[in-house]
Write a structure and sequence with these properties.
With 396 residues, this protein is mainly beta. The chain contains 7 helices and 22 strands. Among the domains are: 141 residues, Jelly Rolls (Sandwich), CATH 2.60.120; 128 residues, Jelly Rolls (Sandwich). Helices cover 11% and strands 36% of the residues.
Length: 396
């Protein structure tokens, strides 16, 4: 939506006995890791491996230890738009990752636009209405709510509206390899702003093309406001008849869908989004997942072997993230709600929740990413299930 450096608009496992670091270390001592390597080694910061297993690798490791929070691009009466700036976090640009957040206040309306990048939208809070136009199809109006994950292909036109008192907050994560600027989304407005894509054409020309009268044209290509989020009049309403049931196939509510993986001893659960439960995600080349860890539970090391980049946003709670390469830990630090972190391809990651638990949403740059865990048979393993997995046939 904007240049984060200038503000210019382009358009729109079960419980651990204690949460101390000593106990967390003993909890994961099943891994082939030496305790003295759990801190970031100065020698590995900013370096990468020239080659490994036939792959050419390049990591900006120093960025993995930096707290990544969104920077406000625009804020007004109708809401605000913020993004994670690739100029401040080079790991985003290096791996073609875009991340942004839209917040709409009551009667806030994000004007129609299309993006240069494929992305997944996740509703963090509130409820509202999404207007979407897929290429060659008619407009669809969809009621959205907290927990919805929505796949948005390149070029799809969207607008967002919040009719409730609670703020509507939406996270966007995506792949920017097709973007105008790597590591950043650029949204092209169709109306309302000085930079909308119709403002350069004369009203007479647009009128002849669309056979519209002047009053409609004035709404379509003006007024020329330097913003992409507005506040509509309180009397504005969308009838229930217009909200057809387009949810199936377009989006999936992660809080209401049975998890793909879970820990039978209460450690937590994960829902994987792929072409099996959300077919449209195959059109954007991304996979996604939503996970919850209960207090002091651990999600054991996961490796993306495709290879694929994984981007994770912490929805609530806090904990520890450990990212390891082939020779030691790249980073081992605290993470908390509102933060983003990136795990480069072929590296393993482990997450340990604090006593209050942790919830996250992540994307992987492959719609059917082949991830596996380095310990046990389940995606989540608690202290109660470790003995079971150790004695089970075929467990690692």
């Amino acid at each position: 939506m904007g240049d984060c450096s200038t503000g210019a608009m382009h358009g729109i496992g079960g419980s651990i006995e204690s949460s101390s670091s000593q106990n967390c270390t003993s909890y994961i001592e099943f891994l082939p890791v030496k305790e003295e390597n759990t801190d970031i080694e100065e020698s590995c910061i900013g370096k990468g491996l020239d080659s490994w297993g036939g792959f050419r690798l390049h990591y900006v490791w120093s960025d993995l230890s930096v707290r990544m929070r969104a920077k406000m691009v625009y804020e007004g009466e109708g809401g605000g738009y913020s993004e994670w700036c690739p100029k401040e976090h080079e790991v985003l640009q290096d791996h073609n990752i875009g991340a942004a957040k839209l917040v709409l206040s009551t009667n806030g309306f994000a004007l129609p636009c299309y993006s240069d990048s494929a992305k997944v939208a996740y509703v963090l809070q509130g409820s509202g209405i999404l207007g979407v136009v897929l290429p060659g199809q008619e407009e669809k109006l969809v009621a959205i709510r907290k927990g919805d994950a929505i796949a948005l292909p390149v070029g799809v036109v969207t607008w967002w509206y919040n009719k409730d008192v609670t703020e509507l907050e939406i996270l966007f994560l995506g792949d920017t390899k097709t973007a105008v600027k790597l590591g950043s989304f650029t949204d092209f407005l169709l109306k309302g702003s000085n930079s909308n894509n119709l403002s350069c054409f004369s009203p007479e020309f647009i009128g002849r093309a669309w056979k519209s009268d002047k009053s409609v044209l004035k709404t379509l290509i003006g007024p020329h406001l330097a913003r992409s989020i507005v506040k509509l009049n309180p009397g504005f309403e969308i009838s229930e008849a217009e909200l057809k049931d387009y949810r199936d196939g377009m989006l999936l509510n992660c809080e209401e869908t049975a998890p793909s993986r879970f820990d039978t001893d209460g450690g937590g659960e994960i829902l994987d989004l792929n072409t099996e439960n959300l077919a449209i995600i195959g059109d954007i080349g991304l996979g996604a997942s939503r996970a919850t860890l209960n207090g002091n539970a651990a999600y054991y090391p996961e490796i993306s072997v495709d290879p694929a980049i994984r981007v994770t946003y912490i929805i609530k709670g806090s904990g520890t993230v450990k990212v390891r390469d082939f020779g030691g830990f790249v980073t081992d630090r605290q993470i908390e709600a509102g933060e983003l972190f990136v795990v480069p391809r072929l590296l393993s990651v482990c997450k340990i929740a604090d006593p209050d638990g942790m919830e996250w949403f992540s994307i992987v740059c492959n719609e059917n990413s082949n991830n596996y865990l380095t310990l046990g048979r389940w995606g989540l393993i608690s202290d109660g299930s470790i003995p079971k997995s150790s004695s089970s046939p075929g467990s690692s």
